[in-house]
Design goal:
InterPro entries: DUF6922 (IPR053830). This is DUF6922 domain-containing protein. The radius of gyration is 12 Å and the shape is globular. It has 4 helices and no strands. It is mainly α. It has one domain. The longest helix has 11 residues.
């Protein structure tokens, strides 16, 4: 996946490791990602990891947490 600079404004998107930086990527996509990026995250990352990151994140907006919790409910 080629990440947008607008999504990762504080780092070079080309240097992000999708495995090592999973929490960082998931949080950014959950809060600021578009439909394509959200679908990629849902397809790429394990559902258990997504649930864990969303539940434990302290930087996500409350509405974002609610939406993603509902998306990952099953």
């Amino acid at each position: 996946m080629k990440f947008r600079q607008a999504l990762f404004w504080d780092t070079n998107p080309k240097t992000i490791n999708v495995k090592k930086n999973a929490q960082y990527i998931i949080e950014r996509i959950a809060d600021f990602g578009n439909d394509k990026e959200a679908r990629w995250a849902l397809d790429f990352y394990d559902k258990a990891l997504l649930k864990k990151v969303i539940a434990k994140s302290r930087c996500l907006r409350p509405r974002t947490k609610t939406l993603w919790t509902l998306l990952l409910k099953n």
